[in-house]
Amino acid sequence: MITRRQLLSGFGAGLVCLMIGAPSTASALNPERIRQKMQQAHGTSGVSLIDDWLTMIERLRGARLGDQMREVNDFFNRKVLWRDDISIWGQEDYWATPLEMLGRREGDCEDYSIAKYITLKELGVPGNKLRMIYVRARIGRSQRTQAHMVLGYYQTPVSEPLLLDNIIPSIRPASERNDLDPVFSFNSSGLWAGGSQESRADPLARLSRWQNVINRMRDQGFI
């Protein structure tokens, strides 16, 4: 059983020296290309929602970090219905771009995390303070676990992260999420081992999906 102390240390432990191909630190957002791609894929209803997203970004530029994180977290949690990848894409594990998720108004935990990550980076939050964290989430009294992903914000590399999640709508520090056991975390520049001594996921397979979604986001005008 992982203790609370192990849980907190696990969210930030053990950097693996692996560069995983990523968005530039400078903004490369291309709103017109995004709108064009959304129109082609999902029509005017999709464009309307992407315009809501773009309006939120402009409104939040220069806002306090806490307000940015709260509103970005709420935007995707309210606008997007959770469904699993089989139901949406007919695949066991598909990582969607923000355009794909907003166009369908459906996504799973990876999609929420990716969209929040890209949005906060566009708002100027340094990428090295954000990590997508793959966890095992314990469900209900049965303590049954399932794979899950959240987005973590780290004030410093050794700070306890704040977690943005689609299951629990409020942003909470990791110490208040005893239902989560970290496996690994990653961002645009590195991969970190989690608190478990035995890997319960294949990081390289999952990071190949990350590289794939980066390529699609570049094509769609996000990065």
TrEMBL record:
Pfam families: Peptidase_C93
Taxonomic superkingdom: Bacteria
PANTHER family: BLR5470 PROTEIN, PTHR39327
Protein name, entry field: Transglutaminase-like cysteine peptidase
